[in-house]
Amino acid sequence: HAAEAQRTDLMTITRHVLNEQSKHPEAHGDFTILLNHIVLGCKFVCNAVQKAGLAKLLGLAGVTNVQGEAQKKLDVLANEVFVKALISSGRTCILASEENEEAIVVEPLKRGRYCVVFDPLDGSSNIDCSVSVGTIFGIFMAKDKENPTLDDVLQSGKNLLAAGYCLYGSSCMLVLSTGNGVNGFTLDPSIGEFILTHPDIKVPSKGKIYSTNEGNAKYWDEPTAKYVESCKFPKDGSLPKSLRYIGSMVADVHRTLLYGGIFLYPADKKSPNGKLRVLYEVLPMSYVMEQAGGQAFTGNQRALELLPTKIHDRSPIFLGSYDDIEEIKALYAATEATK
Ligand code: P6P
């Protein structure tokens, strides 16, 4: 009967968030409404991504579609959908998107108290070869929703109220933390609902995988080079780690979250601040990883302590299993000590 009860007692993401909400009596359902609009965006993008190949086949993408309109690139389309969904939720007052140079201030009549930072379609360069891509988002509270300013989005990761991502892969999975651990929800396309499939995700304390673009090895600093060397030629007699690198952050981080190990996008001589963006890649993924019992480190500090000065700031990032991050922190500390 338990299995039957489980099967019919659908824990959708909305119901799950409402349960969470009930722990905060002062909350007025605003967060649930905001989240439902993010979920709407994810459902739309999931469908569009899965059809992208077909559209290309039919010659729609990149030329003109059946309405004769120029077919938008998927990342532009995804961005428009999320911006409109977030504004129409009536629960946001300022947005920062990877696709927009400047922050988007919501019109006064539709302002709410939340600020959302997001990458609508991270890794979109991988779509044409059907590699998984994803949406990444983080949620802050505005200081004064009637007078939103850039400072409302340029907040430290320590102020994040919630963060998550949606992976458009072999299944469409939304991973979310609202500050009480991490939960994974899989889209059931037959009913259009995200169902709780991975409750209370915990990243293994140590992993057997390292994930980085070895093609940058020539440009790495000494601690990163030493760490990757130790993954390949362990000095303690342990087995070498496996290298897994998809080149799509949401996919690489999601595998790290579930299987353990470490994801590295370090600074290098070409990119002294690394490649990944603080606000809508590094901070949300660091928040999720810490909430799952892992760590996130920049080479200098705990990643969530980063305070961006500009919307598109970059930072090096090392995130994943607690013990694996401890090892790279020790190497950076040792280098610091010799300076
Ligand atoms: P590289 C995709 O373009 C992206 O922004 C992330 O999704 C991914 O982790 C990274 O860049 C890959 O960068 O330099 O290894 O191709």
Automatic annotation (TrEMBL):
Enzyme Commission number(s): 3.1.3.11
InterPro entries for this protein: FBPase_C_dom, FBPase_class-1, FBPase_N, FBPtase, Fructose_bisphosphatase_AS
Mind listing the GO molecular function terms for this protein? fructose 1,6-bisphosphate 1-phosphatase activity; metal ion binding
User: Fructose-1-6-bisphosphatase class I N-terminal domain: from which residue to which, for each copy?
Assistant: 11-199
Please name the GO terms of the biological process aspect recorded for this protein, alphabetically.
fructose 1,6-bisphosphate metabolic process; fructose 6-phosphate metabolic process; fructose metabolic process; gluconeogenesis; photosynthesis; sucrose biosynthetic process
Taxonomic superkingdom: Eukaryota
The EC category is: hydrolase
Q: Which UniProt keywords apply?
A: Carbohydrate metabolism, Cytoplasm, Hydrolase, Magnesium, Metal-binding
The coenzyme or cofactor needed here is:
Mg(2+)
Main location per UniProt? cytoplasm
One Pfam entry for this protein is FBPase_C
GO CC terms for this protein? cytosol
Cellular compartment(s): Cytoplasm
**NCBIfam families (UniProt xref):** PRK09293.1-1, PRK09293.1-3
- Family note: Belongs to the FBPase class 1 family.
Please identify the protein, giving its name as recorded: Fructose-1,6-bisphosphatase, cytosolic
